[in-house]
């Protein structure tokens, strides 16, 4: 039950991000649910490899390059999920930062 709740909350975060960030478009709740699933898979499969490959630049930027990695993973996920799109990479970067902040807020409110 906790996984289902988390999945729904993350979908709501994506919908809120689409509302807050102009140029980041999610077709509906179903698109957000599918995007959460794909992002979860990509965060397990692709993100560690990207993090390892970019470790030197990540160290030089004191971890700030992680935001770029998150945006790259989101951009790849958007290519797979129909109904989710972004105007540019900058919009995707802003959307990934907003998603991170909203996820932290929601996690704090829910108690995770």
Layout of strands and helices, then pairs:
Layout: H1 2-20, E1 24-26, H2 29-45, H3 47-53, H4 55-60, H5 65-80, E2 84-86, H6 89-110
Antiparallel strand pairs: 1-2
Helix pairs in contact: 1-2, 1-6, 2-5, 5-6
Question: Your description of this structure?
Answer:
This protein has six helices and two strands; from the N terminus they run H-E-H-H-H-H-E-H. The chain is globular, with a radius of gyration of 14 Å. The chain is 78% helix and 5% strand. The protein has one domain. The protein has a two-stranded antiparallel ribbon. It starts with a helix and ends with a helix. The protein has 112 residues and is mainly alpha-helical. Helix 1 packs across helix 6 (89-110), helix 2 (29-45) packs across helix 5 (65-80) and helix 5 (65-80) crosses helix 6 (89-110).
Task: Please outline what is shown here.
The chain is mostly helical and 112 residues long.
Largest sheet: 2 strands, antiparallel
The overall average pLDDT, rounded, is: 91
Which structural class do you get from the secondary structure elements?
Answer: mainly alpha
Strand order of the largest sheet: 1-2
Number of helices: 6
Q: What would you call the shape?
A: globular
Query: What is the helical fraction, as a range of percent?
Result: over 70%
Series of secondary-structure elements, N-terminal to C-terminal: HEHHHHEH
| Computed Rg | 14 Å
Q: How many individual β-strands?
A: 2
Q: Separation of termini? A: 14 Å
* pLDDT < 50 runs, ≥5 residues: none
What's the number of domains? 1
Strand content: 5-15%
Properties at a glance:
single chain; two-stranded antiparallel sheet; 78% helix; 2 strands; globular; mainly alpha
């Amino acid at each position: 039950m906790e996984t289902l709740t988390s999945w729904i909350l993350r979908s709501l975060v994506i919908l809120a991000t689409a509302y807050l960030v102009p140029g980041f478009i999610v077709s509906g709740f179903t698109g957000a649910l599918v995007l959460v699933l794909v992002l979860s898979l990509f965060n397990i499969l692709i993100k560690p490899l990207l993090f390892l490959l970019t470790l030197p630049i990540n160290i030089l930027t004191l971890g700030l390059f992680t935001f770029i990695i998150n945006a790259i993973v989101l951009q790849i996920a958007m290519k797979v999920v129909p109904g989710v799109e972004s105007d540019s990479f900058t919009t995707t970067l802003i959307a990934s930062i907003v998603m991170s902040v909203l996820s932290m807020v929601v996690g704090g409110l829910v108690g995770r």
